[in-house]
Protein backbone atom coordinates (compact mmCIF):
# COMPACT_ATOMS: atom_id res chain seq x y z
CA UNK A 1 0.00 0.00 0.00
CA UNK A 2 2.90 2.34 0.80
CA UNK A 3 4.28 1.73 -2.70
CA UNK A 4 0.95 2.24 -4.46
CA UNK A 5 0.46 5.54 -2.65
CA UNK A 6 3.89 6.66 -3.78
CA UNK A 7 2.97 5.80 -7.37
CA UNK A 8 -0.24 7.80 -7.18
CA UNK A 9 1.46 10.76 -5.55
CA UNK A 10 4.25 10.69 -8.13
CA UNK A 11 1.81 10.69 -11.02
CA UNK A 12 -0.25 13.47 -9.49
CA UNK A 13 2.87 15.55 -8.94
CA UNK A 14 4.01 15.14 -12.54
CA UNK A 15 0.58 15.73 -14.02
CA UNK A 16 0.30 18.99 -12.08
CA UNK A 17 2.80 20.47 -14.54
CA UNK A 18 1.23 19.19 -17.76
CA UNK A 19 -0.33 21.23 -20.59
CA UNK A 20 -4.10 21.01 -20.54
CA UNK A 21 -5.65 21.94 -23.86
CA UNK A 22 -5.06 18.38 -25.02
CA UNK A 23 -5.07 16.46 -21.71
CA UNK A 24 -2.01 14.96 -20.00
CA UNK A 25 0.92 14.20 -22.33
CA UNK A 26 2.17 10.66 -22.77
CA UNK A 27 5.83 11.31 -22.12
CA UNK A 28 4.90 11.55 -18.43
CA UNK A 29 2.91 8.33 -18.75
CA UNK A 30 4.25 4.85 -19.23
CA UNK A 31 7.88 5.69 -18.46
CA UNK A 32 6.75 7.47 -15.31
CA UNK A 33 4.72 4.45 -14.23
CA UNK A 34 7.62 2.09 -14.92
CA UNK A 35 10.08 4.25 -13.00
CA UNK A 36 7.73 4.54 -10.05
CA UNK A 37 7.06 0.83 -10.03
CA UNK A 38 10.80 0.17 -10.12
CA UNK A 39 11.08 2.37 -7.07
CA UNK A 40 8.84 0.05 -5.05
CA UNK A 41 11.58 -1.25 -2.81
CA UNK A 42 12.03 -0.76 0.88
CA UNK A 43 12.94 2.90 1.22
CA UNK A 44 16.12 3.79 3.12
CA UNK A 45 15.72 5.44 6.49
CA UNK A 46 15.55 9.20 5.95
CA UNK A 47 18.21 11.25 7.73
CA UNK A 48 17.12 13.19 10.79
CA UNK A 49 16.86 16.86 9.83
CA UNK A 50 15.48 19.82 11.76
CA UNK A 51 11.95 20.89 10.81
CA UNK A 52 11.63 23.63 8.19
CA UNK A 53 8.85 26.19 8.32
CA UNK A 54 7.25 26.64 4.88
CA UNK A 55 4.83 29.43 4.10
CA UNK A 56 1.87 27.98 2.14
CA UNK A 57 0.94 29.66 -1.16
CA UNK A 58 -1.89 32.14 -1.20
CA UNK A 59 -5.38 30.76 -1.88
CA UNK A 60 -6.36 30.88 -5.57
CA UNK A 61 -9.55 32.82 -4.78
CA UNK A 62 -10.69 35.57 -2.44
CA UNK A 63 -14.28 36.86 -2.06
CA UNK A 64 -14.78 40.14 -3.90
CA UNK A 65 -17.48 42.73 -4.53
CA UNK A 66 -19.30 43.63 -7.73
CA UNK A 67 -18.18 47.25 -7.52
CA UNK A 68 -14.55 46.12 -7.71
CA UNK A 69 -15.06 44.67 -11.22
CA UNK A 70 -13.89 47.43 -13.60
CA UNK A 71 -16.79 48.95 -15.61
CA UNK A 72 -19.23 46.35 -14.22
CA UNK A 73 -22.09 48.86 -14.30
CA UNK A 74 -21.54 49.74 -17.98
CA UNK A 75 -20.26 46.60 -19.76
CA UNK A 76 -22.45 45.16 -22.51
CA UNK A 77 -23.84 41.85 -21.23
CA UNK A 78 -25.88 40.89 -24.30
CA UNK A 79 -23.09 38.88 -26.03
CA UNK A 80 -22.13 37.43 -22.64
CA UNK A 81 -25.68 36.16 -22.21
CA UNK A 82 -25.53 34.18 -25.45
CA UNK A 83 -22.23 32.62 -24.39
CA UNK A 84 -23.64 31.86 -20.93
CA UNK A 85 -26.61 30.03 -22.48
CA UNK A 86 -24.09 27.83 -24.31
CA UNK A 87 -22.37 27.01 -21.01
CA UNK A 88 -25.72 26.05 -19.50
CA UNK A 89 -26.21 23.49 -22.26
CA UNK A 90 -23.28 21.57 -20.76
CA UNK A 91 -23.78 22.43 -17.07
CA UNK A 92 -27.54 22.44 -16.54
CA UNK A 93 -27.66 18.93 -15.06
CA UNK A 94 -24.85 19.52 -12.57
CA UNK A 95 -26.18 20.20 -9.06
CA UNK A 96 -24.23 23.43 -8.58
CA UNK A 97 -25.60 24.87 -11.81
CA UNK A 98 -29.16 23.53 -12.03
CA UNK A 99 -30.86 26.43 -10.26
CA UNK A 100 -29.07 29.27 -12.02
CA UNK A 101 -29.34 27.64 -15.45
CA UNK A 102 -33.04 26.92 -14.91
CA UNK A 103 -33.62 30.62 -14.14
CA UNK A 104 -32.38 31.58 -17.62
CA UNK A 105 -35.76 30.47 -18.93
CA UNK A 106 -37.43 33.20 -16.90
CA UNK A 107 -35.72 35.95 -18.92
CA UNK A 108 -37.15 36.83 -22.32
CA UNK A 109 -35.25 39.48 -24.29
CA UNK A 110 -33.55 40.86 -21.15
CA UNK A 111 -31.83 44.25 -21.28
CA UNK A 112 -28.50 45.02 -19.63
CA UNK A 113 -30.10 45.99 -16.33
CA UNK A 114 -32.01 42.71 -16.14
CA UNK A 115 -28.89 40.70 -17.01
CA UNK A 116 -26.82 42.54 -14.42
CA UNK A 117 -29.48 41.82 -11.81
CA UNK A 118 -29.53 38.14 -12.88
CA UNK A 119 -25.80 37.70 -12.39
CA UNK A 120 -25.73 39.63 -9.12
CA UNK A 121 -28.62 37.59 -7.71
CA UNK A 122 -27.29 34.21 -8.82
CA UNK A 123 -23.52 34.49 -8.42
CA UNK A 124 -20.77 35.52 -6.03
CA UNK A 125 -17.62 37.13 -7.49
CA UNK A 126 -14.21 35.81 -6.40
CA UNK A 127 -10.93 37.35 -7.51
CA UNK A 128 -8.29 34.94 -8.81
CA UNK A 129 -4.80 34.98 -7.30
CA UNK A 130 -1.51 33.46 -8.40
CA UNK A 131 0.31 31.19 -5.91
CA UNK A 132 2.58 34.11 -4.96
CA UNK A 133 -0.43 36.25 -4.05
CA UNK A 134 -0.27 38.49 -7.15
CA UNK A 135 -3.38 39.25 -9.21
CA UNK A 136 -1.85 40.05 -12.61
CA UNK A 137 -1.38 37.35 -15.25
CA UNK A 138 -0.85 36.82 -18.97
CA UNK A 139 -3.72 37.13 -21.46
CA UNK A 140 -3.03 35.83 -24.97
CA UNK A 141 -5.33 35.28 -27.94
CA UNK A 142 -6.33 32.49 -30.32
CA UNK A 143 -8.64 32.18 -33.32
CA UNK A 144 -10.07 29.89 -36.00
CA UNK A 145 -7.77 30.04 -39.05
CA UNK A 146 -8.50 29.26 -42.69
CA UNK A 147 -6.07 27.07 -44.64
CA UNK A 148 -5.96 26.33 -48.35
CA UNK A 149 -6.09 22.60 -48.95
CA UNK A 150 -7.24 19.56 -50.92
CA UNK A 151 -8.48 16.06 -50.23
CA UNK A 152 -5.73 14.67 -52.46
CA UNK A 153 -1.99 15.25 -52.43
CA UNK A 154 -0.65 17.46 -55.21
CA UNK A 155 2.55 19.41 -55.83
CA UNK A 156 0.82 22.43 -54.29
CA UNK A 157 -0.95 20.68 -51.42
CA UNK A 158 1.64 18.37 -49.82
CA UNK A 159 1.43 18.77 -46.03
CA UNK A 160 -0.92 16.19 -44.42
CA UNK A 161 -3.56 17.02 -41.83
CA UNK A 162 -4.05 13.71 -40.03
CA UNK A 163 -6.88 12.00 -38.22
CA UNK A 164 -5.86 10.18 -35.02
CA UNK A 165 -3.72 7.10 -35.79
CA UNK A 166 -4.85 3.62 -34.90
CA UNK A 167 -1.70 2.89 -32.88
CA UNK A 168 -2.23 5.80 -30.48
CA UNK A 169 -3.27 4.53 -27.03
CA UNK A 170 -5.22 6.66 -24.58
CA UNK A 171 -4.99 5.46 -20.99
CA UNK A 172 -7.68 6.73 -18.63
CA UNK A 173 -5.98 6.75 -15.24
CA UNK A 174 -9.29 7.31 -13.46
CA UNK A 175 -10.37 3.76 -14.33
CA UNK A 176 -7.48 2.43 -12.26
CA UNK A 177 -7.14 5.14 -9.62
CA UNK A 178 -10.29 7.17 -8.85
CA UNK A 179 -8.01 9.90 -7.45
CA UNK A 180 -6.83 10.55 -11.01
CA UNK A 181 -10.29 11.06 -12.51
CA UNK A 182 -10.31 12.82 -15.92
CA UNK A 183 -6.53 12.42 -16.35
CA UNK A 184 -5.19 10.57 -19.36
CA UNK A 185 -1.85 9.38 -20.66
CA UNK A 186 -1.01 8.67 -24.29
CA UNK A 187 1.40 6.19 -25.80
CA UNK A 188 1.83 3.20 -28.11
CA UNK A 189 2.65 -0.48 -27.79
CA UNK A 190 6.19 -1.66 -28.36
CA UNK A 191 5.99 -5.41 -27.96
CA UNK A 192 4.31 -5.78 -24.58
CA UNK A 193 5.45 -2.39 -23.29
CA UNK A 194 3.63 0.92 -23.43
CA UNK A 195 6.03 3.66 -24.56
CA UNK A 196 5.54 7.33 -25.43
CA UNK A 197 3.98 8.05 -28.80
CA UNK A 198 6.11 9.48 -31.60
CA UNK A 199 7.18 13.11 -31.41
CA UNK A 200 6.52 15.72 -34.12
CA UNK A 201 9.82 15.08 -35.91
CA UNK A 202 9.11 11.34 -36.01
CA UNK A 203 5.61 11.88 -37.39
CA UNK A 204 6.88 14.29 -40.04
CA UNK A 205 9.39 11.59 -41.04
CA UNK A 206 6.64 9.02 -41.57
CA UNK A 207 6.58 7.13 -38.28
CA UNK A 208 3.26 5.99 -36.81
CA UNK A 209 0.21 4.26 -38.28
CA UNK A 210 -0.75 7.33 -40.30
CA UNK A 211 -0.89 6.09 -43.88
CA UNK A 212 -4.48 6.48 -45.03
CA UNK A 213 -5.31 8.76 -42.07
CA UNK A 214 -4.87 11.96 -44.11
CA UNK A 215 -8.02 14.08 -43.92
CA UNK A 216 -6.62 16.86 -46.09
CA UNK A 217 -3.41 18.05 -47.66
CA UNK A 218 -2.64 21.73 -47.08
CA UNK A 219 -0.46 24.28 -48.82
CA UNK A 220 1.65 25.69 -46.02
CA UNK A 221 3.57 23.91 -43.24
CA UNK A 222 3.60 26.94 -40.93
CA UNK A 223 -0.15 27.44 -41.29
CA UNK A 224 -0.64 23.75 -40.42
CA UNK A 225 1.57 24.18 -37.35
CA UNK A 226 -0.50 27.14 -36.14
CA UNK A 227 -3.74 25.27 -36.88
CA UNK A 228 -2.52 22.65 -34.39
CA UNK A 229 -1.89 25.36 -31.80
CA UNK A 230 -5.35 26.91 -32.33
CA UNK A 231 -7.05 23.51 -32.19
CA UNK A 232 -9.68 24.15 -34.88
CA UNK A 233 -10.08 25.80 -38.26
CA UNK A 234 -11.51 25.62 -41.75
CA UNK A 235 -10.03 24.16 -44.93
CA UNK A 236 -10.84 25.97 -48.18
CA UNK A 237 -10.93 23.38 -50.97
CA UNK A 238 -10.12 24.09 -54.65
CA UNK A 239 -13.84 24.46 -55.50
CA UNK A 240 -14.15 27.25 -52.90
CA UNK A 241 -16.07 25.22 -50.33
CA UNK A 242 -15.07 25.27 -46.66
CA UNK A 243 -14.78 22.27 -44.35
CA UNK A 244 -14.53 22.65 -40.57
CA UNK A 245 -11.97 20.62 -38.66
CA UNK A 246 -11.47 20.34 -34.91
CA UNK A 247 -9.20 18.75 -32.35
CA UNK A 248 -9.46 14.97 -32.09
CA UNK A 249 -6.35 13.80 -30.23
CA UNK A 250 -2.77 14.69 -29.34
CA UNK A 251 0.42 12.65 -29.25
CA UNK A 252 0.92 13.26 -25.53
CA UNK A 253 4.08 15.36 -25.66
CA UNK A 254 4.19 18.83 -24.08
CA UNK A 255 3.78 22.04 -26.04
CA UNK A 256 7.03 23.98 -26.49
CA UNK A 257 6.89 27.57 -27.80
CA UNK A 258 8.90 28.00 -31.01
CA UNK A 259 8.61 31.76 -30.59
CA UNK A 260 10.51 31.45 -27.31
CA UNK A 261 13.12 29.28 -29.05
CA UNK A 262 13.64 31.95 -31.73
CA UNK A 263 14.12 34.58 -29.04
CA UNK A 264 16.57 32.38 -27.11
CA UNK A 265 18.71 31.84 -30.23
CA UNK A 266 18.67 35.52 -31.19
CA UNK A 267 16.65 34.95 -34.37
CA UNK A 268 13.86 37.28 -33.18
CA UNK A 269 13.54 40.02 -30.60
CA UNK A 270 10.98 39.34 -27.89
CA UNK A 271 8.58 41.96 -29.30
CA UNK A 272 8.78 40.21 -32.71
CA UNK A 273 7.86 36.75 -31.40
CA UNK A 274 4.19 36.94 -32.41
CA UNK A 275 2.45 34.61 -34.84
CA UNK A 276 3.02 37.17 -37.60
CA UNK A 277 6.67 37.54 -36.64
CA UNK A 278 7.22 33.76 -36.69
CA UNK A 279 5.54 33.45 -40.10
CA UNK A 280 7.74 36.24 -41.45
CA UNK A 281 10.84 34.47 -40.10
CA UNK A 282 9.73 31.22 -41.78
CA UNK A 283 9.39 32.96 -45.16
CA UNK A 284 12.91 34.35 -44.82
CA UNK A 285 14.47 31.08 -43.60
CA UNK A 286 12.65 28.15 -45.26
CA UNK A 287 15.78 25.99 -44.91
CA UNK A 288 15.59 26.27 -41.09
CA UNK A 289 11.84 25.77 -40.75
CA UNK A 290 11.69 21.99 -40.30
CA UNK A 291 14.28 22.03 -37.54
CA UNK A 292 12.44 24.84 -35.76
CA UNK A 293 9.05 23.10 -35.88
CA UNK A 294 10.62 19.89 -34.58
CA UNK A 295 11.53 21.68 -31.35
CA UNK A 296 7.86 21.50 -30.37
CA UNK A 297 7.34 17.72 -29.93
CA UNK A 298 3.56 18.11 -29.49
CA UNK A 299 1.41 17.03 -32.45
CA UNK A 300 -2.36 17.41 -32.83
CA UNK A 301 -4.69 15.17 -34.82
CA UNK A 302 -8.04 16.37 -36.21
CA UNK A 303 -11.54 15.31 -37.13
CA UNK A 304 -14.03 16.78 -39.57
CA UNK A 305 -16.83 18.78 -37.94
CA UNK A 306 -20.34 19.44 -39.26
CA UNK A 307 -20.31 22.62 -41.31
CA UNK A 308 -23.56 23.61 -39.65
CA UNK A 309 -21.66 24.51 -36.49
CA UNK A 310 -21.56 28.27 -36.01
CA UNK A 311 -18.15 28.16 -34.29
CA UNK A 312 -15.52 25.65 -33.15
CA UNK A 313 -16.25 23.48 -30.14
CA UNK A 314 -14.28 24.23 -26.99
CA UNK A 315 -13.21 21.78 -24.30
CA UNK A 316 -16.61 22.26 -22.62
CA UNK A 317 -18.20 20.71 -25.72
CA UNK A 318 -20.19 23.79 -26.78
CA UNK A 319 -19.54 26.28 -29.62
CA UNK A 320 -17.25 29.16 -28.67
CA UNK A 321 -18.56 32.73 -28.83
CA UNK A 322 -16.36 35.20 -30.69
CA UNK A 323 -14.69 37.65 -28.27
CA UNK A 324 -16.66 36.26 -25.30
CA UNK A 325 -15.11 32.81 -24.76
CA UNK A 326 -11.75 32.19 -23.13
CA UNK A 327 -9.49 29.20 -22.60
CA UNK A 328 -8.32 28.70 -19.00
CA UNK A 329 -6.40 26.29 -16.82
CA UNK A 330 -9.19 24.08 -15.40
CA UNK A 331 -7.03 23.15 -12.41
CA UNK A 332 -8.10 26.55 -11.05
CA UNK A 333 -10.95 27.93 -13.17
CA UNK A 334 -14.00 25.65 -13.56
CA UNK A 335 -15.00 25.07 -17.17
CA UNK A 336 -18.24 26.79 -18.06
CA UNK A 337 -18.01 29.46 -15.38
CA UNK A 338 -18.44 33.19 -16.10
CA UNK A 339 -15.11 35.00 -15.70
CA UNK A 340 -14.80 38.76 -15.56
CA UNK A 341 -11.64 39.68 -17.44
CA UNK A 342 -9.95 43.05 -16.98
CA UNK A 343 -7.19 43.53 -19.56
CA UNK A 344 -6.31 45.75 -22.55
CA UNK A 345 -6.65 45.52 -26.31
CA UNK A 346 -3.66 44.02 -28.18
CA UNK A 347 -0.58 46.25 -28.15
CA UNK A 348 -2.48 49.12 -26.51
CA UNK A 349 -3.40 50.47 -23.10
CA UNK A 350 -7.09 50.74 -24.07
CA UNK A 351 -9.18 48.86 -21.46
CA UNK A 352 -10.85 45.60 -22.43
CA UNK A 353 -13.19 44.77 -19.55
CA UNK A 354 -15.94 42.20 -20.07
CA UNK A 355 -17.69 39.18 -18.67
CA UNK A 356 -16.40 36.11 -20.53
CA UNK A 357 -17.15 32.37 -20.35
CA UNK A 358 -14.46 29.80 -19.55
CA UNK A 359 -15.29 27.30 -22.30
CA UNK A 360 -11.93 25.99 -23.48
CA UNK A 361 -8.47 24.88 -22.35
CA UNK A 362 -5.05 25.17 -23.95
CA UNK A 363 -1.68 23.47 -24.07
CA UNK A 364 0.09 26.70 -23.13
CA UNK A 365 -2.63 27.88 -20.72
CA UNK A 366 -1.12 27.04 -17.36
CA UNK A 367 -1.56 29.05 -14.20
CA UNK A 368 -4.31 30.65 -12.14
CA UNK A 369 -4.45 34.17 -13.60
CA UNK A 370 -4.03 33.00 -17.22
CA UNK A 371 -6.44 33.27 -20.13
CA UNK A 372 -6.51 32.77 -23.91
CA UNK A 373 -9.01 35.13 -25.58
CA UNK A 374 -10.97 33.67 -28.54
CA UNK A 375 -11.11 36.26 -31.31
CA UNK A 376 -13.20 34.36 -33.87
CA UNK A 377 -12.59 33.30 -37.49
CA UNK A 378 -10.42 34.70 -40.26
CA UNK A 379 -7.50 37.01 -40.93
CA UNK A 380 -8.64 39.94 -38.81
CA UNK A 381 -9.22 37.66 -35.83
CA UNK A 382 -5.81 36.11 -36.46
CA UNK A 383 -4.15 39.52 -36.48
CA UNK A 384 -5.69 40.36 -33.11
CA UNK A 385 -4.87 36.96 -31.63
CA UNK A 386 -1.28 37.01 -32.88
CA UNK A 387 -0.57 40.39 -31.29
CA UNK A 388 -2.27 39.76 -27.95
CA UNK A 389 0.14 39.41 -25.02
CA UNK A 390 -1.47 41.58 -22.39
CA UNK A 391 -1.53 41.68 -18.61
CA UNK A 392 -4.88 41.12 -16.94
CA UNK A 393 -6.88 40.31 -13.82
CA UNK A 394 -9.68 37.77 -13.44
CA UNK A 395 -12.75 37.26 -11.25
CA UNK A 396 -14.69 33.97 -11.32
CA UNK A 397 -18.44 34.05 -10.72
CA UNK A 398 -19.52 31.03 -8.66
CA UNK A 399 -23.20 30.08 -8.35
CA UNK A 400 -24.47 31.03 -4.92
CA UNK A 401 -24.37 28.01 -2.67
CA UNK A 402 -21.45 26.53 -4.64
CA UNK A 403 -18.71 28.98 -3.70
CA UNK A 404 -15.21 27.53 -3.17
CA UNK A 405 -14.22 26.38 0.29
CA UNK A 406 -11.09 28.35 1.15
CA UNK A 407 -8.54 27.13 3.65
CA UNK A 408 -7.88 29.40 6.58
Report on this model:
It is globular, with a radius of gyration of 23 Å. Strand 7 and strand 8 (193-195) form a beta hairpin. It has helices at residues 2-15, 30-38, 78-91, 95-102, 112-122, 200-204, 221-230, 258-264, 275-284, 286-293, 379-387, and strands at 61-63, 123-128, 137-144, 146-150, 159-162, 169-172, 184-190, 193-195, 214-218, 232-236, 242-250, 300-304, 325-327, 338-344, 351-360, 370-377, 389-399. The strands form 3 sheets. It has a 6-stranded mixed barrel with strand order 3-16-13-15-14-17. It starts with a helix and ends in a 9-residue tail after the last strand. By secondary structure, it is α+β, with helices and mostly antiparallel strands. Helix 1 (2-15) runs antiparallel to helix 2 (30-38). It contains 11 helices and 17 strands. Among the domains are: 1-41 and 167-208, no CATH class; 61-142 and 312-399, Barwin-like endoglucanases (Beta Barrel), CATH 2.40.40.10.
Mean pLDDT: 85
Helix content: 25-40%
Structural class: alpha+beta
CATH architecture verdict of the domain at 61-142 and 312-399: Beta Barrel
CATH class of the domain at 61-142 and 312-399: Mainly Beta
How many angstroms does the end-to-end distance come to? 31 Å
Spell out the CATH superfamily of the domain at 61-142 and 312-399.
RlpA-like domain
Largest sheet: 6 strands, mixed, barrel
**Count of DSSP-assigned helices:** 11
Order of helices and strands: HHEHHHEEEEEEEHEHEEHHHEEEEEHE
Shape: globular
Assembly level: single chain
Strand content: 25-35%
Give the number of DSSP strands.
17
Low-confidence stretches: 1-57
The CATH topology name of the domain at 61-142 and 312-399 reads: Barwin-like endoglucanases
* Rg estimate, integer Å: 23 Å
Amino acid sequence: MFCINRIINGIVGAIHELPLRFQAPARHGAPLLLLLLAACVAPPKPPVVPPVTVTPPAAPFAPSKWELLPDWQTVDLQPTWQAFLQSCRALKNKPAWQAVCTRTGELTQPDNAALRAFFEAGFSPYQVFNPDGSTQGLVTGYYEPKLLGSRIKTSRFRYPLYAAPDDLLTIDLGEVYPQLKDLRLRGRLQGKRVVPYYQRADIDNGKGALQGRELFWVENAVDLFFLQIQGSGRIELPDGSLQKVGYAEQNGHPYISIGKKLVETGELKIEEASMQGIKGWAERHPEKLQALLAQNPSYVFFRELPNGLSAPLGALGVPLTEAYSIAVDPRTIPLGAPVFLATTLPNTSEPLNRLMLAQDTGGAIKGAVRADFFWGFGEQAGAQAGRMKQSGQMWVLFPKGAEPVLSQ
